[in-house]
């Protein structure tokens, strides 16, 4: 069984979609821990509702960013995690975490990467509107030390409509995020994802 760790900093709607998929038997995994760097994050309430252990690992409790991320890594390993999903995690992951779980950390980003990477929601969606693209969407990718640039595992596209606002586009993409993320984690649970020469394949 895949032992999943979640890292979240905010509202936690993706964490909620993943935990609901596990609870409803649509995703064969055990949610081992949800770790946050924001002690007030709603994601903590979400985890508690699903009976998932939580930990707050805040920057101010550590002398350096690397010390904080080392604590995050240690917590993940202590909970027996073999797969990590970033679910609105606002910090850039340090190699100390990435190297401990190579090709086993995924992120969801609210754009069709490689377009509009490198910023946090809702900036990617706003940038898509400014660029006048006709398709927007979300990407699940492997986390590497290069921001939003790891191997792409899956994408979901939505149309950009003429009267879209940032809010309406964010909402349309979020529906797809909640569908795509648990699905892709299921592929990992089933051992269907391989990564070779920086390209992810699903068999
Ligand atoms: C989502 O837009 C996700 O794509 C991005 O951050 C946002 C997190 O939202 N990485 P939530 O905390 O999962 O509701």
User: How would you write the strand order of the largest sheet?
Assistant: 3-2-1-4-5-6-7
What series of H and E elements makes up the topology? Answer: EHEHEHEHEHEEHEE
Q: Residue share in helices?
A: 25-40%
Shape: globular
Mean pLDDT: 97
Number of separate helices: 6
- CA radius of gyration: 16 Å
What small molecules are bound in this structure?
5-O-phosphono-beta-D-ribofuranosylamine
Instruction: Give the N-terminus to C-terminus distance in angstroms.
Output: 19 Å
Proportion of strand residues: 25-35%
Low-confidence stretches: none
Give the structural class. alpha/beta
Tally the beta strands. Answer: 9
Largest sheet: 7 strands, mixed
Q: How would you portray this structure in words?
A:
The chain has 203 residues and is of the alpha/beta class. The chain has 6 helices and 9 strands. It has helices spanning 13-23, 42-49, 65-78, 95-98, 123-131, 166-189, and strands at 2-8, 29-36, 54-56, 83-86, 105-109, 135-142, 152-159, 193-196, 199-202. The strands form 2 sheets. Strands 3-2-1-4-5-6-7 form a 7-stranded mixed sheet, sandwiched between helices. A two-stranded antiparallel ribbon has the order 8-9. The longest helix has 24 residues, at 166-189. 5-O-phosphono-beta-D-ribofuranosylamine binds next to helix 1 and strand 5.
């Amino acid at each position: 069984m895949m032992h999943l760790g979640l890292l979240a900093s905010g509202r936690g709607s993706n964490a909620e979609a993943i935990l609901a998929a596990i609870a409803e038997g649509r995703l064969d995994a055990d949610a081992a821990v949800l770790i946050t760097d924001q002690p007030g994050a709603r994601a903590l309430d979400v985890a508690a509702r699903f009976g998932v252990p939580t930990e707050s690992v805040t920057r101010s409790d550590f002398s350096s960013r690397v010390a904080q991320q080392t604590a995050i890594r240690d917590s993940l390993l202590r909970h027996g995690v073999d797969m990590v999903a970033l679910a609105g995690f606002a910090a850039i992951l340090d190699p100390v975490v990435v190297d401990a779980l190579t090709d086993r950390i995924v992120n969801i980003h609210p754009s069709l990467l490689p377009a509009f990477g490198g910023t946090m929601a809702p900036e990617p969606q706003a940038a898509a509107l400014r660029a006048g693209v006709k398709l927007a969407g979300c990407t699940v990718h492997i986390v590497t030390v290069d921001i939003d640039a790891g191997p792409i595992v899956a994408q979901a596209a939505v149309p950009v409509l003429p009267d879209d606002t940032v809010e309406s586009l964010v909402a349309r993409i979020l529906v797809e995020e909640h569908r795509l993320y648990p699905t892709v984690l299921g592929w990992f649970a089933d051992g269907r994802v391989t990564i070779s020469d920086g390209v992810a394949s699903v068999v």
